[in-house]
Amino acid sequence: MHYFTTLVMLVTPLFQLVVPQYIDPSTVDDATKQKWCNDQQAACPLLCLQMNASDVPASNDCTASTLAFTCVCDNGLQPNASEYSQTVPYYECTESANHSLQAQNPTRVNTSTISTMSATSTGGSSGSKETGASAVYTGFGAASTTGSSSGKSDAQSLIFGFGRSYGLAIVFIGVSAAFTFLL
Known about the structure:
Blueprint: H1 2-17, H2 30-50, E1 59-63, E2 68-72, H3 88-104, E3 115-116, E4 138-139, H4 143-146, H5 154-182
Antiparallel strand pairs: 1-2, 3-4
């Protein structure tokens, strides 16, 4: 019983991570909703094939104004469209994520400026010389030729990489151990 209680306490927060994402259909323009419905209707026969049914579904409807859809295979099964891309649930989830990212207005901290190098012509070529913005080659300026100038040693990079990769797992194990010790 002790282990069951611990397991329930550890697994319960994970269910909070899986929150269905829904959007209000009125926030999406009509052409986009129609494309989503067209893609949903195109995906339904393929999903039915994966359900050991024919590629002719018994019901394959989608209403663009409400984004309500049905996909029932000829064997009576309904595939879970949320597990596949190019379906209405996929698009709703993607759009919901886009809205939440725009709402947060993130600050870009890893930006770079692109500088252009002047192209030079070689002595034997008959091509034209390009300079400025019309140059074919664009690079990152002096930073690309000087190598790593961030000032971080290899040891620092290794430690930060380890922390990024395993930090959450270490915290999770520590919390698990604390709960086990307390119970």
